[in-house]
Design brief:
The protein has eight helices and nine strands. It is α/β, with parallel strands linked by helices and about 200 residues long. Strands 3-4-7-5-6 form a five-stranded mixed sheet, sandwiched between helices. A two-stranded antiparallel ribbon has the order 1-2. A two-stranded antiparallel ribbon has the order 8-9. Helix 3 packs across helix 4 and helix 4 packs antiparallel against helix 5.
């Protein structure tokens, strides 16, 4: 179901299956339509990750160019066969997804269910979520069409294959409610805190 938000200058329509994965930096949804462009503009996106095989529509490409949004395409087959799910494509998508230089970032496939759910599920495993929570989130977005093969894929996906690629990215807690991903280089470049008495 599409969510419609009211704003002073018009109506903003969220893409199908839209949700924040990480507040203010990572979002997920189904394939954005032109009616969703004003809403996407409100997110101030820096990047979009597309997991669909199909060529990106010209109208969407023009929107990205006008708004200076980078497009990363990882064509993944949307079939039900686990053998067609590319671990290397998921690993490459995760590298882009977790790189703060690409944030805010939106990840999508056709409906925002299976391929997007797999990538987000692998991200959650990297974030040390327990498998039952990963599967609960996957099923929330896949609905009645969740796939056992996707569950087996998430269960067997080895996050150590991406840990070494992501050593420059760490989590820093800000208060009890907000987490931000920061590049280690950004932290190292900040001058040390001094106390004045």
């Amino acid at each position: 179901m599409d969510m419609i938000l009211q704003e002073d200058d018009g109506i903003l329509v969220q893409p199908t299956n839209f949700s924040a994965v990480e507040d203010n930096c990572i979002y997920r949804c189904g394939f954005p339509q032109p009616s969703n462009f004003p809403f996407l503009q409100s997110l101030n996106l820096n990047s979009i990750i597309c997991l669909s095989l199909e060529p990106y529509p010209e109208e969407n490409l023009e929107f990205l160019k006008f708004n200076k949004v980078k497009l990363f395409q990882f064509g993944m087959d949307g079939t039900k066969e686990p053998s067609t799910m590319s671990r290397s494509a998921i690993t490459e998508a995760l590298k882009v997804l977790t790189d703060v230089r690409n944030h805010p970032v939106l990840i999508h496939c056709k409906r925002g269910k299976h391929r997007t759910g797999l990538v987000v599920g692998c991200l959650r495993k990297w974030q040390s979520w327990c498998l039952s929570s990963v599967m609960d989130e996957y099923k929330q977005f896949a609905g009645a069409k969740w796939r056992e093969t996707d569950g087996r894929f998430l269960e067997t996906f080895d996050v150590s294959c991406i840990r070494h690629c992501l050593e420059s990215i760490i989590y820093t807690n800000y208060g009890s409610t907000k987490r931000c991903l920061l590049c280690i280089e950004e932290i190292l470049q900040k001058p040390p805190m001094t106390s004045v008495l």
